[in-house]
Amino acid sequence: MADSGILESRNLTLSLLSENDFNIIFPLMNRPEILDTMVLHYPLDREEWYDIFKNNPEKAAQGKEFGFMITLKKNKKIAGMCDLLDVNEKREKAELGYWISPEFRKQGIAFDACKLLIEYGFSHVGLHKIWAETFSTNTPSQGLLEKLGFRKVGILEKEVFKHGMWRDRVLYELLNPES
Q1: Bridging pattern class, strands 6-8 and 151-162
Q2: Which CATH superfamily is domain 6-127 in?
């Protein structure tokens, strides 16, 4: 990643999230079709999301979290977000998170963005393992993780109470091929 906080592929730009991006991203992510796919154990309010954005550059500088806004190069539209969360102190592992706005799904955007971020996590952050989780009902996300080379390692049954019901979490992992 350049000092500018930018990762690029042929079709996408991933830019490190900052406080200035909050008013752009929050309305996109604060929609039921996005929030319903997030494996959150509790709802976050606007102020809590704002703090995440505000603290992202500092956490990235400390090597703790790396949150990126996904922008399409062809039309400069914001397609979603991806991040490496909870990077541990020894930088052995981190969680991969992502969401794509419905109008940009099934176009390979999540695959390209996550692939770029995974490569960054392994080559620049020095991670040994990247893990991810999804709801058992989110088969598109499971397919994406498997296409990226993740291995399904387990199911945590009735793990998250959301929308009045218990939901299962499916866990995946990807090992750094160089470690």
Answers
A1: unpaired
A2: Gcn5-related N-acetyltransferase (GNAT) (3.40.630.30)
